[in-house]
Amino acid sequence: xxxxxxxxxxxxxxxxxxxxxxxxxxxxxxxxxxxxxxxxxxxxxxxxxxxxxxxxxxxxxxxxxxxxxxxxxxxxxxxxxxxxxxxxxxxxxxxxxxxxxxxxxxxxxxxxxxxxxxxxxxxxxxxxxxxxxxxxxxxxxxxxxxxxxxxxxxxxxxxxxxxxxxxxxxxxxxxxxxxxxxxxxxxxxxxxxxxxxxxxxxxxxxxxxxxxxxxxxxxxxxxxxxxxxxxxxxxxxxxxxxxxxxxxxxxxxxxxxxxxxxxxxxxxxxxxxxxxxxxxxxxxxxxxxxxxxxxxxxxxxxxxxxxxxxxxxxxxxxxxxxxxxxxxxxxxxxxxxxxxxxxxxxxxxxxxxxxxxxxxxxxxxxxxxxxxxxxxxxxxxxxxxxxxxxxxxxxxxxxxxxxxxxxxxxxxxxxxxxxxxxxxxxxxxxxxxxxxxxxxxxxxxxxxxxxxxxxxxxxxxxxxxxxxxxxxxxxxxxxxxxxxxxxxxxxxxxxxxxxxxxxxxxxxxxxxxxxxxxxxxxxxxxxxxxxxxxxxxxxxxxxxxxxxxxxxxxxxxxxxxxxxxxxxxxxxxxxxxxxxxxxxx
Amino acid sequence: xxxxxxxxxxxxxxxxxxxxxxxxxxxxxxxxxxxxxxxxxxxxxxxxxxxxxxxxxxxxxxxxxxxxxxxxxxxxxxxxxxxxxxxxxxxxxxxxxxxxxxxxxxxxxxxxxxxxxxxxxxxxxxxxxxxxxxxxxxxxxxxxxxxxxxxxxxxxxxxxxxxxxxxxxxxxxxxxxxxxxxxxxxxxxxxxxxxxxxxxxxxxxxxxxxxxxxxxxxxxxxxxxxxxxxxxxxxxxxxxxxxxxx
Lengths: 585, 246
What we know:
The complex is a heterodimer.
Chain A: E1 7-10, H1 17-22, E2 24-29, E3 33-35, E4 39-47, E5 53-57, E6 61-62, E7 64-66, E8 72-80, E9 83-96, E10 100-104, E11 108-111, E12 114-117, E13 121-126, E14 132-133, E15 150-156, E16 160-162, E17 167-175, E18 182-187, E19 195-200, E20 208-213, E21 216-230, E22 234-238, E23 241-250, E24 266-275, E25 278-283, E26 293-298, E27 300-306, E28 310-312, E29 316-325, E30 343-345, E31 349-353, E32 363-373, E33 380-381, E34 385-390, E35 395-400, E36 404-405, E37 407-409, E38 435-436, H2 447-494, H3 501-516, H4 525-534, H5 539-555, H6 566-580
Parallel strand pairs in A: 3-13, 16-25, 26-34, 28-37
Antiparallel strand pairs in A: 1-2, 2-4, 4-9, 5-11, 6-10, 7-9, 8-9, 10-13, 11-12, 14-15, 15-17, 17-21, 18-23, 19-21, 20-21, 22-25, 23-24, 27-29, 29-32, 30-32, 31-32, 33-36, 34-35
Chain B: H1 2-13, H2 22-34, H3 37-48, E1 52-53, H4 55-67, H5 71-84, H6 89-102, H7 112-123, H8 126-150, H9 155-183, E2 186-189, E3 194-197, E4 206-210, E5 215-222, E6 225-230, E7 235-239, E8 243-245
Antiparallel strand pairs in B: 2-5, 2-8, 3-4, 5-6, 6-7
Helix pairs in contact in B: 1-3, 2-3, 3-4, 4-5, 4-6, 5-6, 7-9, 8-9
């Protein structure tokens, strides 16, 4: 049976970035470690929207013998990302010629007029055959020692591997053509302790090949395929796989009550077949791994491109790093960006794609970094390094991308002066100052602030009103006093003894003071009269007042007749004065 | 760990919390320290869903989103944190990182007054300006009050009033302008290369494209479309679902 296991060696797309995004050229080899005399298949796969493949230069072999100069060619079209994807495979076959380190040289393929060249691939040739198969010698025999008409075998790509190296196991169903198996299902658990397992999908309908085993004709079809990645060293094994399926057999009588025997009839019976467990010897990785090693083993390729060749300081440049290989997809980690002064690098996004319809698992990880240059002196983005364990050579290998030239314009930003390298986003731990989540109101929409702004003018206005009121009250006090002077004076006269000349004199003088603002208590009678005349009061009224005041002074030293009441006589005098005296302003 | 963390966060944060969700914040911080940035982001989202917020929560959410490469959410959290604590040094640092990561050029106002307002908004803020304006306003009216009470101004008070009066008016105008600037509706573009339509619903020709995480001013609304204007002057209509308002 021809080995169909393909081992992915390297993805080499050497076209410029723009072309590389559209057309992908990858190189495959089926095995890295082969036994002397074993066959190695080398494949170049071209994927993408291309029109034609032109000249093809076959690879040279060192320690390997090329068996076909013209490659086997196959093309298929599939749907990917909503668009049809065309994939053309070119296969060359080599035979290992002597134990040692062999090499498949470079191959060249011209795609739409553009030449793509692959890199050499190292192959380790050992004395013992490397594949392990459980058929047919380990298949269950019938009672007479012959092979049954249907049995299942397991075939691993290698019997020994390093930790992390991919092992592909094919489960091949062998059956006689008359059996016509169908509806196969896995029965029970199928474990692989110490392995990371990734199931691969098979193209349907399952192709079968006709083989001769022990003189019998069998059909052989691969019904299940999985990739295993050892996670620890030691003698490990992949559990036996049991499947249940329907097989076509001639009907037989079921006893006296059974159906009537029909020599021309046949029907399907359910039957179980099992493949034996697969032992794998797993070797530990050697010591001395570089610091950039993250645990990947196999064969990988690394490339990087930027979304623009020029940017202003502070502007983001997106750098996409593509890492592809046949190692464990879980170990595909982004390369660490070297510390570069003036360059700020944000953690990358990670997107890993794992095509599963393939003879061997080959994952591609895309890591997109946002890089911000803060210094116009930067002329290139530094190379990125990523280390894996090369299972073909048994050594650690570091891949390095080419520096990406960039042109940075503008002035250096403040971040350029920060410590060399980058300062990532800041995190704050500890108690948080919580508030109820609500849309923050603008300051001038907050009632408290508006009230605070409104208060001062209102307060000043109130002060102003108080002051005006007070002044008005102050200004009207003499007038009120003036108006009240006559009323108070008359009331005082009526409460005074009729002959109390001193009291009447005082009441009259106080009336003059209150009504006319005349300091009458300190003035002589003559001065009072003169002052009143100056103010324009009628002479008669002034004369009556003069006479009254003189009479009061006289009565204080000489008794008056009882019928003469000074108090009563004073009332008309004061009323006359009040009637003619102008009110004070 | 992201799935369980998100489930836990949502379960714990389902009812409106009477107490601040310190436990979710602490859980997010722990996941962040472990390098599980998406898990941390889920925990922070759970804390935010509890009805509480804080500059610390939004700051840490912006950091986690940045680490996870989720620029729109990083921008949203950083801008919201900046609204709560505009002069917080950590918030400003993360906001600067997000802006740089988005690749958005700094906003360049057309006029000197607009530049002054933008500078004041970035370096002072509306609330401190309003507080300063209030102080000047109170001082001005205190002087006026003294004049009313005493019936006149001594020379010193008169000179002081001549300084304080214009200052108060200027501060009020500045505070009002900055407040208007800060409270203008803004949104963050969620989709990468979201096309800007010239007319609502007209997708035949794009007037421009928005980057994921880009900040835009939001204007008129028409159906499921909003008019937006980016800092570089690009304007057009986008579907409301392609952006998140601050």
